[in-house]
Specification:
This protein is an all-alpha fold and 167 residues long. 92% of the residues lie in helices and 0% in strands. It has one domain.
Length: 167
């Protein structure tokens, strides 16, 4: 699932990168062609190469600065968009890492619990063996039954948790 999401973001990023590169190319092309297009436009309007025409041509570069300012806004917007995409990808990576870490912590906790139950079961087994060696002379039959009952209960718990852990 994680890889699929990453590939989707990567494909989406490629498409939007193409859009921004196209917008940037169009703007730069307009900046390069601007003087030529302005000159042809003035010629088409029938204006001669007089001083007022030269003044108009010089003033027209004010429009070029606004175009370049627009280009700067486009580039800033693009940079912000790319940062947002990168943050999204990082959040997904962190979410995935947290899930893996949580699963690992749960598995370790279950494993520790199982080990504790197994140790307790061994303790009750040894206690039952010790009581069995002493015999009935000390009134240990009830204690032996209790130790065996604890051992069997713990063995059942261990078996249930082991089955759950395998699934």
């Amino acid at each position: 699932m994680y890889i699929f999401i990453g590939e989707t973001l990567m494909n989406e990023s490629r498409l939007t990168t193409r859009f921004w590169l196209t917008a940037l190319s169009a703007t730069l092309g307009l900046c390069v062609l601007y003087p030529y297009l302005l000159d042809k436009g003035l010629d088409a309007a029938g204006l001669m190469w007089r001083i007022d025409r030269r003044a108009q041509f010089g003033e027209s570069f004010g429009a070029l600065t606004s175009i370049l300012s627009g280009l700067a806004c486009i580039l800033i917007t693009w940079a912000l968009y790319l940062q947002r995409q990168e943050l999204r990808a990082q959040q997904m990576h962190l979410k995935y890492a947290n899930q893996v870490l949580e699963e690992q912590v749960n598995a370790d906790r279950d494993q520790s619990y199982l080990q504790g139950l197994a140790a307790l079961s061994r303790f009750h087994q040894k206690r039952a063996e010790m009581l069995e060696r002493k015999g009935d002379s000390h009134g240990s039959e009830r204690e032996w039954d209790e130790a065996m009952r604890h051992k069997h209960l713990l063995a059942e718990k261990i078996e249930k948790l082991s089955m759950k852990h395998r699934l």
